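About this split. The held-out portion is used to measure sequence recovery: a designer receives only the structure tokens and must propose an amino acid at every position. Recovery is the fraction of positions where the proposal matches the reference. Here is one held-out target exactly as it appears in the evaluation file.
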């Protein structure tokens, strides 16, 4: 094939267009050049065609309607909390062994009254929303949790200096009596956080030593009672004048817990009482203080309570031994109900069997509640039966009536509850050291039961209660604020037990709101 000679390019024939050239002239000249180039060069023609086709394809692509691409989206849905009990996401209690892996410490410097510096405990501060508020009393969260009671804090909303049910009458001295009692308890707390039944007087000044030791086997129980008294006044582990006292005490209780959740050891007949009361304090401290690191310990305490209950009954001195009594069961129910309020895992059957038990041991006509069976009076320490006759007290009736309120029963539907109140009123509080009628255990439960009843019945009880406790409190020297342990169970619990119960009893005005309206 003969090679075709390409035409030469003559620069003299290139035209430079002036910017003022008319559009028609520019377009005609361009067409002429294209025609000449196509006529002279097939390669150039092919190049032009290819470029035109490429431009056409590109134009079609860029001018086509865009295809909508769906990007993955994250949808969040916010649901408003209803003012009804609502379960938190379940958290599996973790097995924590502080001895091997101690938690980060918190330094607490507000302990000048104890002459201690750099006090540390094993609780870690919690990051997040729970750190933004001092305690449950500062919000209305418990209205959602508990679902009963007016004002912030629901059932617990009367506590603290702004509590709705605080005594506001200027001539009333109950607040002062309570304050003295709390100060005495604070001044007799050991450095490690617990209260000693028999050695509390080591904190007394020389020459002014308090008397009234108790049995040291009850240290866990009386420590729980003392902590409940401080919590009942409105302090928590995060706020209030006694937050350091509570924090130390709860830390000590936590350290007494075994792998099975039992606080303490199986020592004697009272260890179930001690566990129930200490658990009650531990659970309240967890719920009201918002300490998440405390939750596994509170749940373990609850788990032990539930494992100790008789399969088709309630509780007594030893786990699942087939025996039941109204007194131990009362404390267990209080602990479990508090646990339920704060979203811990609780078996509803425990409440059902407790209700059946109190029906079984209660006289339907008088409302009188028995100890282990219907008609049986309160137990007494060995050798104390004559000194403190069971006929002088209605302690079990008080336990039964108050527990019924916590189980959700209403006097409007349960006539036996009003009958029980009338029976309690027949034995009002009287501070008489000579007749064996002083029983702070009875006065504690009787007061909380009658406060729930309210009305004229409560006013009658209240009048006797104030006279009995306000006039008998020690008001001088180092013992000021305490009560002498001359009541039933006073020798066993000692001055710490008696004082803690005295304070708790007078806190009845605001520790819990009325559960029924």
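Reference sequence for scoring:
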């Amino acid at each position: 094939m003969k090679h075709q000679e390409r035409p030469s390019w003559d620069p003299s024939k290139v035209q430079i267009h002036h910017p003022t050239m008319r559009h028609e002239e520019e377009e005609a000249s361009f067409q002429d050049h294209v025609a000449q180039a196509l006529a002279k060069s097939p390669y150039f023609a092919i190049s032009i065609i290819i470029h035109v086709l490429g431009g056409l394809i590109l134009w079609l692509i860029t001018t086509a309607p865009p295809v909508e691409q769906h990007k993955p989206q994250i949808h969040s849905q916010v649901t408003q909390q209803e003012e009804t009990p609502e379960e938190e996401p379940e958290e599996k209690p973790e097995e924590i062994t502080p001895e091997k892996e101690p938690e980060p410490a918190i330094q607490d410097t507000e302990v000048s009254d104890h002459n201690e510096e750099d006090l540390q405990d094993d609780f870690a501060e919690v990051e997040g929303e729970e750190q933004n508020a001092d305690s449950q009393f500062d919000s209305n969260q418990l209205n959602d949790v508990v679902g009963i009671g007016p004002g912030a804090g629901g059932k617990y909303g009367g506590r603290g200096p702004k509590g709705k049910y605080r005594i506001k009458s200027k001539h009333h001295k109950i607040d002062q009596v309570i304050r003295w009692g709390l100060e005495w308890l604070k001044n007799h707390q050991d450095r490690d956080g617990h209260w000693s039944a028999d050695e509390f007087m080591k904190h007394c000044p020389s020459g002014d030593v308090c008397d009234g030791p108790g049995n040291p086997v009850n240290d866990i129980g009386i420590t729980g009672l003392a902590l409940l008294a401080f919590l009942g006044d409105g302090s928590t582990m995060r706020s209030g004048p006694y937050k350091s006292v509570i924090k130390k005490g709860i830390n000590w209780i936590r350290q007494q817990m075994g792998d099975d959740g039992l606080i303490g050891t199986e020592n004697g007949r009272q260890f179930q009482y001690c566990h129930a009361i200490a658990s009650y304090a531990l659970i309240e401290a967890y719920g009201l203080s918002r300490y998440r690191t405390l939750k596994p310990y509170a749940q373990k305490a609850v788990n032990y309570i539930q494992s100790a209950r008789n399969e088709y009954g309630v509780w007594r001195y030893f786990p699942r031994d087939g025996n039941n009594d109204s007194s131990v069961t009362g404390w267990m129910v209080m602990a479990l109900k508090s646990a339920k309020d704060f979203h811990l895992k609780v078996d509803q059957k425990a409440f059902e069997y407790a209700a059946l038990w109190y029906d079984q041991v209660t006289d339907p006509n008088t409302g009188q509640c028995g100890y282990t069976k219907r008609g049986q009076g309160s137990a007494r320490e060995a050798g104390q039966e004559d000194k403190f006759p069971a006929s002088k007290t209605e302690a079990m009736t008080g336990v039964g009536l108050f527990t019924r309120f916590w189980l959700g029963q209403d006097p409007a539907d349960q006539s036996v509850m009003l009958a029980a109140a009338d029976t309690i009123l027949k034995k009002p509080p009287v501070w008489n050291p000579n007749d064996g009628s002083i029983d702070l255990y009875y006065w504690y439960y009787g007061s909380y039961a009658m406060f729930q009843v309210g009305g004229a019945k409560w006013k009658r009880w209240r009048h006797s209660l104030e006279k009995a406790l306000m006039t008998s409190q020690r008001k001088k020297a180092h013992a000021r604020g305490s009560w002498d342990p001359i009541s039933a169970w006073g020798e066993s619990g000692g001055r710490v037990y008696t004082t803690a119960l005295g304070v708790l009893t007078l806190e009845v005005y605001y520790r819990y709101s009325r559960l029924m309206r």
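Annotator remark: Strands lie at 106-108, 119-121.
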